[in-house]
Amino acid sequence: MEILDYSLKKYFKTKNSPCLSFNIYELQQGEHCVEEEKLHRSDYFQVIILTKGTLTQQIEHKTTNLTSNYLSVIFLHQINAMTINKDTEGIVIQFDEVLFCSDLLKNELIAYNDDLINKLNHVKLSDTAHAKILDYAIQIVNFYKELSAIKKEQIRFYIKIMLLEIIEMAHQTIDTSQTTNQLDYFVRFKTLIEADYKTKRTVTYYANALNITTKKLNSICKSKTSKTALNIIHERLLTEIKRLLVFSGKNHKEIAFDLGFDSPSALNKFVNTKLKETPSELKEELSQIYKQ
């Protein structure tokens, strides 16, 4: 079966609209739901907040029927699809990885600490908790309907606050004994990357740190994300390059040495190899997304 690849950049391109770091829609909007029914991976996070009716959701090999008061957080590169009924209502919030600048959000969502990936895929909320999260989501929808430079900043702020609330709720019910052996290795690998990616970029280093072979590490990464271990290391580095280009105010030389490159030209070569553009071109592109 074909698994499609979705990205915010591709989505906004089909709409002939400037690319944003987020996309928001309501489940009743048919065009989005048709696309969500297809099995796919995405290069962004997705939060689904169900308010009425039911939907059937597949994440990886697990299929779950969600009812009202449920929410779901889908992580980058997770294989997923969902089918909604005519009476289903809810809000979908999609956002990219670069949006996270706080260390807390980076560590929680990127490293998938404490097996949050399993807990956040499907979360049953109390009426009070659901109402609180829904209030944030409704406010985000309202901002999105009247976009301006200020509204975009407010959306990013509300997404972060909403996620912190969801993470806190998930932590209250985490049972780490449920972590599978393979997922445990993947979580530890992602955590090691967070600690060492600026200076350690070989698969051998991380495999040795985990006391497994490079073949096994690659197999685990492929099963979880369809990407190799080296791809994942490079993606983390590229995400930090993007953050620094847009938010740090540092020049290319400073960024290069902050991230362990021998020279600005080495940084240039890495970015060009991955994205077919220079750091300057990338900065201009990102500025249009995050600072317009």
Describe this structure in words.
Keywords: DNA-binding, Transcription, Transcription regulation. Residues 187-285 form the HTH araC/xylS-type domain. The protein has 292 residues and is of the alpha+beta class. It has 2 domains: 4-176, Sandwich (Jelly Rolls); 180-290, Orthogonal Bundle (Arc Repressor Mutant, subunit A), CATH 1.10.10.60. It has helices at residues 8-14, 30-36, 103-110, 116-121, 127-145, 149-171, 181-196, 203-210, 214-225, 229-248, 252-258, 264-275, 279-290, and strands spanning 4-6, 22-26, 40-42, 44-52, 54-59, 62-67, 70-74, 80-84, 89-96, 123-124. The chain has a 5-stranded antiparallel sheet with strand order 2-9-4-7-10. Strands 6-5-8 form a 3-stranded antiparallel sheet. A hairpin with a 2-residue loop joins strand 5 and strand 6. The longest helix has 23 residues, at 149-171. It is globular and about 55 Å long.
Q: What shape does the CA trace take?
A: globular
Protein structure class? alpha+beta
Number of helices: 13
Rg is 19 Å
Spatial strand sequence of the major β-sheet: 2-9-4-7-10
- Which architecture of the largest domain per CATH? Sandwich
- Report the span from N to C terminus: 39 Å
Strand content: 15-25%
Largest beta-sheet details? 5 strands, antiparallel
Question: How would you spell out the order of helices and strands?
Answer: EHEHEEEEEEEHHEHHHHHHHHH
Helical fraction: 40-55%
CATH-defined superfamily of the largest domain: Regulatory protein AraC
Using the coordinates above, name the CATH class of the largest domain. Answer: Mainly Beta
Give the number of DSSP strands: 10
Average pLDDT: 86
**CATH fold field value of the largest domain:** Jelly Rolls
GO molecular function: DNA-binding transcription factor activity; sequence-specific DNA binding
Organism: Algoriella xinjiangensis
Protein name: AraC family transcriptional regulator, transcriptional activator of pobA
Keywords: DNA-binding, Transcription, Transcription regulation
